[in-house]
Amino acid sequence: xxxxxxxxxxxxxxxxxxxxxxxxxxxxxxxxxxxxxxxxxxxxxxxxxxxxxxxxxxxxxxxxxxxxxxxxxxxxxxxxxxxxxxxxxxxxxxxxxxxxxxxxxxxxxxxxxxxxxxxxxxxxxxxxxxxxxxxxxxxxxxxxxxxxxxxxxxxxxxxxxxxxxxxxxxxxxxxxxxxxxxxxxxxxxxxxxxxxxxxxxxxxxxxxxxxxxxxxxxxxxxxxxxxxxxxxxxxxxxxxxxxxxxxx
Length: 248
Ligand code: SF4
Description:
Blueprint: E1 5-15, E2 25-31, E3 56-58, H1 60-71, E4 79-83, H2 93-101, E5 105-110, E6 124-127, H3 145-160, E7 167-174, H4 177-189, E8 195-199, H5 208-223, E9 232-234, H6 237-242
Helix pairs in contact: 1-2
The protein binds iron/sulfur cluster (SF4).
């Protein structure tokens, strides 16, 4: 029996605005449902139960069809980002296989609270542990799910020379000093994993000049901290350019 996947929205191609794939055209498949409730979540419409009636229940084939409607018959630009909510809550192996057979590269954005083995078969795995300001800090200790992500998608993949994932990265949103020191501790726990720290934004509150001031402060924090000298200090470029508009 095919299990239907709750989908909040499918849109694109748009230019990825954050993390290591910044600047890359992609189609977003945003699933509905999340195991976290971050106070500053900018995708509440894909999280809160009150929006569940807006989520379409789709088969894998229907999702692939919708993605190809976005990219056009040539499947250009050929990149899909599974986002949410938390896409790791669902069994998406069949979707991933079908997308790959259709020629797409596939990325996931997930917070690192649930690991599943299908994730290790993706091209790009970007894990965004949630810092203290979220209200539900993501554990990163040796027993944590985040540790499983790092072990399987990074350490084992490198050791065995697996083809996937081609990219594994950590991305942490920073709203202030406590979040920065959380990011620092995660980086100390997993020093070899490439890390992006990113200016935290508040829906409807951040004018572009505020964001730029915040980015300058974040970059100064990184420059003053030898532990963080090899992280990337960045901003959500789509928010800088368009605010928190949906479908951008
Ligand atoms: S993990 Fe992501 S989608 Fe879920 S509540 Fe937090 S910010 Fe929103």
